Fold this protein.
Amino acid sequence: MSRDTLTVTVAIVVSFSMLLLVGCEGGLAGIGGRPVRRITVDDYVDKMKAGWIGQMAGVGWGGPTEFRFKGAVIPEDKMPQWKPELINQFNQDDIYVEMTFLRTLELYGLDAPIRQAGIDFANSGYPLWHANRAGRDNLRSGIAPPDSGHPEFNKHADDIDYQIEADYSGLIAPGLPNVAIQLGETFGRLMNYGDGLYGGQFVGGMYAEAFFEDDMEKIVRAGLKCIPENSQYHECISDVLMWWKQYPENWEMTWALVDQKYHLNHDYRKCSCSGPESDFNIDAKINGAYIVIGLLYGEGDPDKTIVISTRCGQDSDCNPSNSGGVLFTTIGFENLPDKFKSALDPEGKFSHTPYNFPTLVEVCEKLVREAVVKAGGRIETDGDGKEVFVVPVRKPRPSALEQCWEPGPSANSRFTEAEMGKITAGAGKDLSKVIAKFAPGWKVTRCGDDMNPGLYAEKRGRENVLVTHPLSETVGCVISRTAEIPPGKETSLRLVVGNDERGDWDLIVKAGSKQLLRKAVSNDTAPDGWMEVEVDLSKYAGKSVRLELINQPTDWRFEAGHWAEISLKSG
């Protein structure tokens, strides 16, 4: 054998041996020659448990400061002291809301339809705020996802909400960023859009990486790969990474630069629900920056990470919950400082869920088994008889770029009558007996309790008046029926409607999904308290059509709708 031939042969053998070694450690291995990562099921569970503990620690520690410091760093002496019993955050919405999503996945699998996710979220019983509240109100009013989170219907679509509750998506997707991204498309769309959605996908992507990596810069960059590069959210986190490099010992300098660009600059608050001038900032971007400031400057220390994310202010319990969860995932439950787990009550039940801590861990392990196999991975048994997740390495595929201030068209997604029948929460006051007397064949849904809805003998000079009220600031009361429009005749809908003299409301008339009329009912349009309306339905002749009459809120002041007549006229 010649010297050259021997050299080539040795090189081939060495290269092949290196591939085998890399495969054993998480590089190239046996799924069609594609890169994989390996983690034992025991190690996965240990890290996943720690991720939940990190969330509970962060929200418990930062809770007393939430939105008490807006556009300002929390002084060091105002930072609460940690107490081990603070870990038992079973009544904290920053924790239990995401368990609604876990429950949907437990019941329907990882391919749970977005409309089922919407029905389940609509039926949740806990109080909500901002994008969550607006999204759920939309769902309860019949606006199905993804429109429930679209800026056309949800003025909070860029808010922090899905970012707060996206931890679950990475905790059941170790090394599987595309699973976290897709879960955002299913659950994040219920209430958010654009940067509001990307915040959750970014957080989910960081968790997915935290099972295999403990370098915080690499974890943050892995999260960034899960969102569109041209988004403002990506720009914000990239800026934090850049400023951290410039000022590695001074997190407050990085905080000040973030504040200047992403809080005080209106170009980065175009869809701030509180307005660009407000010191209150619940935008996903800036709060996401505070998560990352904690992770980078915390240097892997649990206390330091949580304290820094908290002291950044604004949503200063949610942000340390996210940063604490990501960091704790890298550490693992067994290696956590005892003060974060010694007082944990394993039987404590998370509010509005079927889960205590052990059952929460069980459902996550069940779902991750499905996720790994569905993603093309497998579950092996190693030489010690331990189960091992073999996780395929895939390049993240971010969602398409969209911006709340220049949104794409809505999907015109509406729940069917059968789907609405499954939404039993938040249905409002029962006026079934009242409407049967006033307008037989019609029904009332989403009627709020304010201003004493019901049938009155007299209102503003008219006898036999039905009074309704919107369910919320965004959800109108609906009077509806399915009508058979006779063929060969001119048919119209006749309404006599009025307002409380102290307020106004909008009358909306719809046939199917088409809006036929929207008109203010106010002291100007109904000067004597009443307004007569006729809506032509002749184009529906010979057809069956669902009619909706909506008492839609305007400025949320004395929004009662008065109805003196609802009738169909044919001739």
User: Anything to note?
Assistant: Confidence is low (pLDDT under 50) at residues 1-29. The first strand starts at residue 28 and ends at 31.
